[in-house]
Amino acid sequence: MSKIILTGDRPTGKLHVGHYVGSLKRRVELQNSGGFDKIFIMIADAQALTDNADNPEKVRQNIIEVALDYLAVGLDPAKSTLFIQSQISELTELSFYYMNLVTVSRLQRNPTVKSEIQMRNFETSIPVGFFTYPISQAADITAFKATTVPVGEDQEPMIEQTREIVRKFNSVYGETLVEPDILLPDNAACLRLPGTDGKAKMSKSLGNCIYLSEEPDEIKKKVMSMFTDPNHLRVEDPGQVEGNPVFIYLDAFARDEHFAEFAPDYANLQEMKDHYSRGGLGDVKVKRFLNEVIQAELEPIRKRRKEFQKDIPYVYEVLRKGSEVAEAVAAQTLSDVKNAMKINYFDDKELIAMQSAKYEEMED
Ligand code: TRP
Fold it and tell me: How would CATH label the architecture of 204-308?
């Protein structure tokens, strides 16, 4: 069976380092590994509209930002199909049929939907489109017969919901759809990078993100004012490494060669952590090191982004071509689905012959 990746992001803002370690970096590695037959990367604008219906301009403006971030991190249109969800009308059609296979109570139990409803203060006025977006996400994944979905931990319930829909569809209508596997980051720190303020998640509305396109002085400002161990008051005090955002970021970003370059007193992160835990290592020093590490990681990304920024029409052209390729694939799946569901009236010669025979019999 071919190995196919589908994944994507909502275009509600620029992408940040949480996206990067949680998924983008992995996608590029997978892309360059050559281990996959096809890779589809989707800008999920239709999904973004499910809770931004009154602000289409925000979604529209952010398509190019996300596309630039994709190209900047190294997603390569020659190897990966980059496309825009709303341009593939087959996806909404698939969603409509999958809706018959999911109960309202199952959606209500989806932990991600539950917490998002709370976060957005929807209370009782939940848009139906938002409530059902896990079904549309199942359409996104299955339309491309994806076997592998590299995403962050928060997307786990979505993939589980997709797998249930696939099993239900196949058992009712016959083997048609492919059950995907989630691919989570293997580094625990990358699973859910906290915000610079130590809050559980990076989020634009909390102002605790470091964006991929951020300028160096801005990155430095954010790193130097990061939340750390609040009880580590004096340099000689023992510090707490666990749960300390600065060390979580180092877990996510620092490699041994960074120590050789920027902190030669330590061979690796463990030595630095030990020193911090013992006492005698100040937060400012650790933050300066983290700043160097993040700067080193983001500099090539920012430079590449600036190159692509010089040719915006090219970026839209990449998305247009990608959307064309994606649509052809989704159309094939939709046709398979309609055949399986027996809603293929006009290309089913047998059906027409059978109905003719039935009425001929009645005539006799
Ligand atoms: N829900 C994802 C997010 O919040 C975006 C998304 C939409 C997605 N459809 C998908 C991710 C299909 C993986 C597969 O970023």
Answer: Orthogonal Bundle (1.10)
pLDDT in tens, 71-88: 999 999 999 999 999 999
Asked if the model's pLDDT at residue 121 lies above 80, the reply is no
Cα of 12 from ligand 1 centre, angstroms: 12
Best mutation site among 20, 24, 158, 165 for ligand 1 pocket (most ligand atoms within 8 Å of CB): 158
CATH 3.40.50.620 fits 4-192+312-351, yes or no: yes
Compute the distance between CA of residue 326 and CA of residue 31 in angstroms, rounded to an integer: 17
**Ligand 1 midpoint to CA 10 (Å):** 7
Delimit the domains of the chain by residue range: 4-192+312-351, 204-308
What single-letter DSSP state applies at residue 150?
Answer: E
- Please give the model's pTM, rounded to 2 decimal places: 0.94
CA of 133 to the centre of ligand 1 (A): 10
What's the CA gap between 311 and 38, in Å, rounded?
26
Could you report the per-residue pLDDT of 265-295, keeping only the tens digit for each? 999 999 999 999 999 999 999 999 999 999 9
Q: Which has the closest alpha carbon to 165: 101, 96, 92?
A: 101
